[in-house]
Amino acid sequence: MRISVLIPCYNEEKTIYACVESLLTQTRPAEEIIVVNDGSTDKSPAILRSFGRKIRLVYTRRNTGNKSYAQEYGLRFVTGDVLVMTDADTMLAPDFLERIEKDFERQDVHAVAGYIKSMRHNWITACRELDYIVGQDLHKKAQANIGALMVIPGCGGAFRTATFRKHIAFDHDTLTEDLDFTYKLHEKNFKILFDESAVVYTQDPATLSAYVNQTRRWIGGGWQNIVKHWRLIITKPGHALEISLIYVEGLVFGSLFFILPFINIFYFYKFFLGYLLIAYIIGLYGLMRRGRFDLLLYAPLFPFMLILNSCIFFEQFIKEVLLRRRNLVWFRPERREIASGCV
Amino acid sequence: MTFPGGISLVIHVLINIACWVTRSVRGVKGDRERV
């Protein structure tokens, strides 16, 4: 089995070296590492050239402005049986490709979703890590159990190349191409595996404004994909359940945060204290599972991030679904150097 | 991305437990273990 890795890169001088290095030190090396330099104006091309023939560096004519265009361009150079997609701000665990290879030994598997961890930095990335723990260890595991996995993450996903080429077109019409890929595979009834042991570390926003902008892209893209793939809801019971749980419940529970204080302030306090308690339990779980004491320390801030997520959820629902003001402008958060010990 | 929602949390925990119990009783391995 030949494995190709595809990385789009636009002005990633702070992270691209660590990303490629993590690929070159895999226990099971990739046959092909393709990096698409998407019109970078910083030192990224020079850093990438320093890897010589260990990687294949290809160039777009100019910056395409959206990751999916760079991926589409890079796909034409892919020759492997399995296509691993990751991001330039991501580091793969040393055994990531080994795990992926084992997953694809099963002939019925057409795609694999990896497990995301957030690189350590500050309280915002700690809250995002808690979000990942809840999202993956509780929600995503259940989705995988009922065959309704909602997303193959863009920074840590793998596909059979033939399936990807034949059944997944780059439409460039949503902000979250990874969701679009996943829904397309579900529409064709392809088996998607969630492999918790295939770990990637990604760099999440470290400032509130960057967090808000990235969350806007994720949630806005989520609503765009719901509008685009609404048939999944009526044809697949598992997806109907999951989409109801995520989107409908998100709207209902999110609204409680804003309505309850006006109805009864004591109910609101109880509601909020309940979330604080849940956050602590999740923090404790994160501490035990990941050995991170800081997660328990930051757990009280987690409910505030959920409220922030809810505000953005409503905003994007109004923009993307009610007003149909589709936003396709890609947001790219400011990168920072990858420090040792952040993974 | 997660949102404040208790119902999904409860349902998903129950699904996970139910699947784990079913697999244990039947001796069927999960997707990961089968690989």
Protein traits:
A: 343 residues; alpha/beta; 13 helices; globular; B: 35 residues; mainly alpha; 71% helix
Plain-language structure description:
The complex is a heterodimer of chains A (343) and B (35). Chain A has helices spanning 16-24, 44-49, 67-75, 96-104, 123-145, 161-167, 177-187, 208-228, 231-235, 237-263, 265-290, 293-298, 302-322; strands at residues 3-9, 32-37, 56-59, 82-85, 90-92, 109-118, 157-160, 191-202. With 343 residues, chain A is an alpha/beta fold. In chain A, strand 2 (32-37), helix 2 and strand 3 form a beta-alpha-beta unit. By secondary structure, chain B is mostly helical. Chain B has two helices and no strands. The longest helix of chain B is centred in the middle third of the chain and has 21 residues, at 6-26. The A-B interface holds A 102-103, 105-106, 131, 134-135, 138-139, 141-146, 193-197, 215, 218-219, 222, 241, 245-246, 249-250, 252-254, 256-257, 274-275, 278, 303, 306-307, 309-310, 313 and B 1-9, 11-13, 15-16, 19, 31-32, 34-35.
